[in-house]
Design goal:
The chain has 13 helices and 9 strands. The protein is α/β, with parallel strands linked by helices. The protein has one domain: Spore Coat Polysaccharide Biosynthesis Protein SpsA, Chain A. Strands 2-1-3-6-5-7 form a 6-stranded mixed sheet, sandwiched between helices. A 3-stranded mixed sheet has the order 4-9-8. Helix 8 packs across helix 10 and helix 8 crosses helix 12.
Length: 286
C-alpha cells in the first residue's frame, strides 16, 4: 500500500498584517522545523511518505487559475492536492501545519479508509456562549442581534450556510455538522467521490443563490461566504458520501481562550489554532 501524509506552508507576505495574523506568521516561522519534524516522524509510524507543499511554481499556477474567485486559495489548494494525491496513492492524510501528531498509532490502520475521515463538530445553538443561549431562550434578545455579534468563521454560521445551500437543492431538515478540514484522511476510492475542485464553480453559484434567498434571515445570510469547510460538508450531505466523524482525541483543537493543560498528553492529534506552541511543547516534554 502506498501511503502519503502531506502539509502546506505558504508564508504570509502581505504588508500591514493585523496583530493576530502577525502573531500567526511569527509563530509558524519560529516553530517551523519542529512542526515539520513531528509530521515526518509520524509518517514513519504510518509507513507513509511525507511531503510539504510550499509556494512553488505549481502553487502560483494554481493561484492564478482561481484568483478571481471569492475564496481562500490556500484552503482550496489543500483539497485540490488531496484529490490529486488520491490518484497517485492508496491512502492520503492531510494535516494543517499547526496540527501536532502525538501518537505512534497508524492513522491508516486505525480507521476505515473506505470512508472520508474528518472531525465535524455539531454546531447547534449549544455552541453559543452560555449568556447568548440564556438570553435567547428567555426572549431577552432576538436571533438577528446575536448573529450580528458573530463573524463569518463561527462554526454555527458555517453550519447554517451549509444548511441554506442544501435547502436550495430541496434538502431540508439537515443537521448542523460542519467538517474541520485541518485533518483529512481517506483512500483513493473515497476521495474520488467528492469531486470538490471540479464542482467549485457550481458550489459558488449555489452559495450565491442561498444568500439571495435568505432562508434564515438577512443577518446570518450576509455572513455566508465561499469556504472550503462549508463546501466540503455540503458535498458530503448532498451526495450522501460515506464518511466517518473522527473521535475528538484524533482532532482536538484549541482556540484563543482555550487553556493548554496536561490533559493534552493523551490526545492523538492536537490542532493548535491559537499557535501557542511554546506552552504545548513544555507540556508534552514533561
Amino acid at each position: 500500500m502506498k501511503n502519503i501524509i502531506y502539509s502546506i506552508y505558504i508564508k504570509n507576505n502581505e504588508p500591514n498584517l493585523s496583530e493576530k495574523h502577525l502573531f500567526t506568521k511569527t509563530q509558524l516561522e519560529k516553530h517551523f522545523d519542529r512542526l515539520i519534524n513531528v509530521k515526518k516522524e509520524y509518517a514513519k509510524h504510518c509507513n507513509a511518505k511525507f511531503i510539504l507543499y510550499e509556494n512553488d511554481t505549481q502553487y502560483q499556477k494554481f493561484r492564478k487559475k482561481y484568483e478571481g474567485l471569492e475564496f481562500d486559495v490556500i484552503n482550496l489548494y489543500k483539497i485540490h492536492l488531496w484529490e490529486r494525491l488520491g490518484k497517485e496513492y492508496d491512502n492520503v492524510l492531510y494535516l494543517d501545519l499547526d496540527v501536532i501528531p502525538n501518537t505512534t498509532d497508524n492513522f491508516f490502520e486505525t480507521f476505515d479508509m473506505n470512508k472520508i475521515c474528518v472531525y465535524a463538530p455539531n454546531a447547534t445553538i449549544e455552541t453559543w456562549s452560555q449568556k447568548d443561549q440564556k438570553n435567547y431562550k428567555k426572549g431577552k434578545v432576538d436571533f438577528e442581534t446575536i448573529i450580528s455579534h458573530k463573524d463569518k468563521y463561527n462554526e454555527y454560521v458555517k453550519a447554517m450556510c451549509k444548511k441554506a445551500m442544501l435547502a436550495t437543492d430541496n434538502k431540508f431538515n439537515t443537521d448542523y455538522l460542519i467538517a474541520n478540514t485541518a485533518i483529512l484522511g481517506a483512500n483513493s476510492n473515497a476521495i474520488s467521490k467528492l469531486k470538490f475542485t471540479d464542482r467549485l464553480r457550481d458550489m459558488i453559484h449555489t452559495l450565491n443563490k442561498s444568500k439571495e434567498e435568505k432562508l434564515f434571515g438577512e443577518a446570518i445570510s450576509k455572513l455566508f461566504f465561499a469556504n472550503n469547510e462549508i463546501f466540503f460538508h455540503y458535498l458530503l450531505d448532498k451526495d450522501n458520501i460515506d464518511w466517518f466523524n473522527l473521535p475528538k482525541d484524533w482532532h482536538t483543537y484549541l482556540m484563543k481562550k482555550d487553556k493548554i493543560t496536561s490533559d493534552l498528553k493523551s490526545v492523538k492529534m492536537i490542532h493548535l489554532i491559537n499557535k501557542r506552541f511554546e506552552e504545548l511543547w513544555s507540556i508534552l516534554c514533561n
